[in-house]
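Person: I have long wanted to understand how a fold can be written as tokens. Underneath my words sits a plain record pairing an amino acid chain with its backbone structure tokens. Those tokens are not coordinates but codes from a learned vocabulary of shapes. I should like you to check that the lines agree and flag anything odd. The protein I mean follows directly.
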Amino acid sequence: MTDIVTMLTMNWASIIGIVIGGICIAVGVHFVPVGGAPAAMAQATGIGTGTVQLAAGSGLTGLLAAGYMYMTLSAAGVPGISEVALICATGAVGAMIMITVTMIVGNWVYIYGVGVPPASAKKDYDPITGDPQAPYVAAGTVGQGLPTVCFVSGAMGGLLGGLGGSLIYCMLMWVNGDPAISSIFAIGVFLVNAVLPSYNIQGTIEGFHDPKFKRVPKAILACFIASLLCGIIAVTIPGAAMLGGA
């Protein structure tokens, strides 16, 4: 018990960082346009797979990029604060690249494979380009493909997800300094904060213009609690083991 209290006292800043990272992930999930099975049949906007799969895919790509940058900067002796900023930026860009490539390829399939233009039935006009949507929505669907607003929203979601995952990884590396342990716990915390928002979304979402986006505060509260618990566990278990071994 003494070891655990000591670890919590020493690493309270890392726990706060993990909580902030978890909230970034939770919000980012709501930005990513998820169409699920309906989108796979070109009957809804978004990418034709689930929330967790997309969040995990972009987030893990961001973690790989962040891990590589961490090792590079550590070898170069870059100071702590600058190191964290660069690592988080690298993870955010890595996740953005993954999700944007996925959306581009998805649109290729919709446009050239299925033969439908990207269009949303939830807005009369694209909030970004102002293009009319209703004339291009196929009958019997709620849109198809990924119009401009969905694409921009997805890129923002990837940025937040990669940022959050990278921040969690950095905080854990500060605690134990072990890349393997930090990666395992970072992935676990990331998946927790990807699964909870998926229940909040309940199926499909187009992005920040979707009415379901208003549910974000509930996800923030749930993921705050979950991330706090995960942060305490992630800090105390490996850290207490290290203290005990010492």
